[in-house]
Amino acid sequence: MTNHDTRQDGARRVGQVKEVTSLANPIVKDIKALSQKKARDEAGTFLAEGLKLIIDALDLGWTIRTLIYSKAAKGKPLVEQVAARTVAAGGLVLEVSEKVMGSIVRRDNPQMVAGVFDQRWKPLKDVSLKAGETWVALDRVRDPGNLGTIIRTADAAGASGVMLVDECTDPYSMETVRATMGSMFNIPLVRTTSQAFREWKKSSGVQLVATHLAGAVDYRKIDYARAPVVLLMGNEQSGLPEDLAKAADRLARIPQQGRADSLNLAIATGIMLFEARRHLLVLDEAR
C-alpha cells in the first residue's frame, strides 16, 4: 500500500492506517450506527473511548475490530503501540479528523482514541460460584448510568460478575460503557430471564440475598460468608417482582433516616457489595 491510494469517500491508505476525513465514509457510518442498540446487536460489537480503556481491554484479551484515533494523537508512542497491536490482531486502524471523531463519540471535546470491540456474554449455565465469591443480579435495571456505576462498583468490591435479568438496559451502550470507567472489561456479564435465573438458583448452591422494601433482616445481620452470594437488586421504580422475591434466601433492608423513601439503585448496590466484602475480609482475618 502507498500514500497514493486515495478514494472518493474521503479515505486514504498510509501503510497499515486508513486516513478518513469524510463523515459520509461507509466505515464511519457503520461505527456511528453503534450508538443504536439494534446495530450493536446485529454486529455483536460496541464502541469504547479512551486510550487507557483500550489498552486495558487489549491486555485482558478482548477482540478489537477497529481502532480510531484523531490526527492529534498521531505519533504518540502509546497510540502507535495500540495501532500495531490492532493490526496484529487483524483489526482496522483509522486516522480521522477531529470532526469525524466528534461525530463518532458524540462529544464536542472527544477522546483522541476509540475502539470497536466484540461483545462478550457469559452463559448462565457456565456460572458456578466458589466459596467467597459474590455476584450481582439486577432485575430490569433501566438507567445506563446506574448500570455502569454498578459494574464499576462490583469490580472495585471484588465481585465476580453481573447478571442482567429480563429487559435491562444495554451494558454496551456508550453511556453505560463510559460509566464503567473500564471495569466492564474485567467483569463477566450474563443476560437471562427471570424464569431461567430462578431455575439456575435452585441448583447453584448460592445464597441469594435480595433487597426489598418488605425486607425482614437488617443487611448488616446477614452472614454473607456462609455460602457464595448473589445480591439481587430490583428495578429502580418498582423494586423486585414477587416471583424473584420468593426465590431469595434472605430479604434484606437497608435502614434509612430522613425523609427519603428509597436509595439510588447504584448506591444501594454499593452498600450491599461492600458489606458482603467486609464479611469475607473478617473471615480471612480470623483464619
Helix content: 25-40%
Q: At CATH's second level, what is the architecture of the largest domain?
A: 3-Layer(aba) Sandwich
- Order of helices and strands, N to C? EEEHHEHEHEHEEHEHEHEEEHEH
What is the fourth-level CATH superfamily of the largest domain?
Answer: SPOUT methyltransferase, trefoil knot domain
Here the CATH topology of the largest domain equals: Alpha/beta knot
Sheet of most strands: 7 strands, mixed
The total domain count is 2
What's the mean pLDDT score?
90
Q: Helix segment count?
A: 10
DSSP summary, beta strand count: 14
Q: At the first level of CATH, what is the class of the largest domain?
A: Alpha Beta
Structural class: alpha/beta
> What is the gyration radius calculated from CA atoms?
22 Å
Strand content: 15-25%
Give the oligomeric state of the chains in this entry, treating copies of one chain as homo and distinct chains as hetero. Answer: single chain
